[in-house]
Amino acid sequence: MNSSINTKRIALAGLFTAAALIIRFVEVPIFPAAPYLKFDPSGIVCLIAALAFGPQLGAGVTILSWVPDMFLDPFGALMGVLNTLCLVIPSALIYDRSGRTRAGSVAGMAVGAILAIIASCAANLVITPLYSAVSVEQVVAMIIPILLPFNALKMAITVVAGQVLLSPCMNVLTAQTGAPHDGNLSHA
Description:
single chain, Arp2/3 complex 21 kDa subunit ARPC3
């Protein structure tokens, strides 16, 4: 029975990775002041995977979903991986430590979102000047009017979607993996 559960979890982890990889290519401009900055919903998939299966698997799904971009846009991929890891790892750790409660998922996602916003702004200071004709001073000038609001909006969309999808996804995953159901999220 345990090997069956592990096999199911591995298969579901593979499905999460495939879903994140495919959905990574859906890019939507969400901030009119910078239409070149685009939101992709793969972070939502990575977030649900991390909450369902733990931070290690969430990190694995995150990294694997960015593999194609590592060859096509290595700097963008590096920033995407960093941003998503900063969201999913604290979210999963706090969620697990809370006993997998709704309050724990909210707190974890809030902490992760704040860390992801900070990491994205900081990474832009280092990475953007490496691959573009933009100086560090120009990136600093973009933090408040462009980078901070874009990343805050991106995290708000991801966290809200993650909260909306968490309970139904956990119910389906619990039924598929045979894992014990704690009931904390099914009635939230």
